[in-house]
Design brief:
- Helices cover 40% and strands 22% of the residues.
- It is an alpha+beta fold.
- The chain has one domain.
- An eight-stranded mixed sheet has the order 2-1-3-4-5-6-7-8, with helices on both faces.
- Helix 2 packs antiparallel against helix 3.
- It starts with a helix and ends with a strand.
Length: 220
C-alpha cells in the first residue's frame, strides 16, 4: 500500500475514534468564558451605580446643608454654581476604593466631576483606565476633580497620569490617585502646582513626587 493510502487509513481511524469529547470540552470552555465576561459586566454596572448613588445622595445633602446655613434656595439644577466638598471627602474616596477592590476584582476605577458637578464613572483593567484624549462623553469643562484608583496598592502618578494632568492642566482643577484606603493612602495634584503630587498616608504627608520636561524625581 502506498504512503498516501496509509495516511488516509490513519485519518479515518482518528475520525472514527473521535467521540466528540474534545468538542464538548471546547464548548464548556467557551461557555465558562462567556459566563465570566457577563459576570464582570454586571459587576461594572453595579460599581458605576454604587458611586453615582453615593455622589448624588451626599452632594444633595451638602447642598441642603448650605441652603439651610445661608438661607439660600439653590436646587440641584443650580449645582454648577457650587463647589462640593464631598468630591474630596474620605467617604467618597472610601466608596470608590471599595468599588475598585471589592465590587470589582481589583480593576482601576475613574471618577470625573465635571464643570456642572455631574459625575462620570469609568472602569478599566487592573493597571489602566481610559482618560487622556478621550474624556467622558457629554462632560462639561472645566473638570473640577479627577479621581482614579491604583488597586495594586500604591498612590503615585504613572507616566500616563502625568501626561494626562499635563495635557489637561488648563482645564482641570485637581486630581487624586487612590492607592489604598485602609491607611488612607492617596496622592493630590492641584492645577496651580502642576508638576508635583503630594502623597499622603494616614492623614500625614508621606512624600512628594515631582516631574519636569525630561525626568521624574521624588522627595521624602
Amino acid at each position: 500500500m502506498s504512503r498516501t493510502g496509509d495516511w488516509f487509513i490513519r485519518e479515518e481511524e482518528k475520525r472514527n475514534a473521535d467521540d466528540g469529547y474534545d468538542r464538548y470540552i471546547e464548548e464548556l470552555e467557551w461557555a465558562k468564558a462567556e459566563e465570566e465576561f457577563e459576570a464582570l459586566e454586571r459587576a461594572r454596572d453595579k460599581a458605576e451605580q454604587h458611586i453615582l448613588e453615593k455622589w448624588f445622595h451626599n452632594a444633595n445633602l451638602e447642598l441642603e446643608s448650605v441652603n439651610h446655613h445661608n438661607n439660600w434656595q439653590m436646587t440641584w439644577e443650580d449645582r454648577d454654581k457650587f463647589d462640593f466638598a464631598y468630591a474630596r471627602s474620605e467617604d467618597f474616596f472610601s466608596a470608590i476604593w471599595h468599588t475598585s477592590t471589592e465590587i470589582l476584582p481589583g480593576l482601576e476605577v475613574q471618577v470625573v466631576i465635571d464643570g456642572k458637578n455631574n459625575c462620570y464613572v469609568t472602569t478599566g483593567s487592573p493597571g489602566y483606565v481610559e482618560f487622556g484624549m478621550q474624556p467622558p462623553i457629554g462632560m462639561s469643562l472645566p473638570i473640577k476633580c479627577w479621581i482614579h484608583t491604583h488597586p495594586f496598592g500604591s498612590a503615585y502618578f504613572s507616566g500616563v497620569d502625568i501626561r494626562t494632568v499635563s495635557q489637561w492642566q488648563p482645564l482641570m482643577k485637581e486630581a487624586f490617585v487612590l492607592g489604598g484606603w485602609e491607611y488612607q493612602h492617596y496622592g493630590w495634584w492641584q492645577q496651580d502646582k502642576p508638576k508635583q503630587l503630594a502623597i499622603y498616608r494616614n492623614g500625614q504627608l508621606e512624600r512628594m513626587q515631582y516631574w519636569g520636561q525630561e525626568s521624574e524625581s521624588e522627595e521624602e
